[in-house]
Amino acid sequence: MASVETAAEHERILREIESTDTNCIGPTLRSVYDGREHGLFMEKLDVRIRNHDREIEKMCNHHFQGFVDSITELLKVRGEAQKLKSQVTETNRHLQEGGKELMSSMEELQQCRVQQRNIATTIDKLTHCLPVLEMYSRLQEQMSAKRIMMRIHRYYPALRTLEQLEHTCLPRAGQYRFCSIMAENIPKLRTQIRDTAMTQLRDFLESIRKHSDKIGETAIKQIRDGKIWQRLAH
Question: pLDDT-derived band of residue 220, with 50, 70 and 90 as boundaries?
Answer without folding.
Answer: low
